[in-house]
Specification:
It is built from two helices and four strands; from the N terminus they run βαββαβ. The protein is elongated. The chain is α+β, with helices and mostly antiparallel strands and 104 residues long.
Length: 104
Amino acid sequence: MIIEYNNLYTHLVLNTIHHLPLISENHRARIEKYITGIVSKHDSMLYAIYANKEHAHILVSRSPKLPEESLASIIANSSEKFINDNKLCVGKFEWQQSAAAFSV
């Protein structure tokens, strides 16, 4: 059966490695904007995002073709590279290898 319409809301929470306060207020908006672009490029829609110093909350309506785990990994890997390439953190930036996903 073909699903012509879907609206699968997922609240993702990504934590920095060891819950260290690695995201500075100076770079928060730039990181959030970058993550918004990542979500859009993967046939999903971002409704809300907030990057705290040690974690990020992301509310998305994801594509049914993309499991939560895949979308979380894409966001984490891409944003980690972006933060490190642009030196938006003192030292090396890393997300934890696990995240939380809640259906809304």
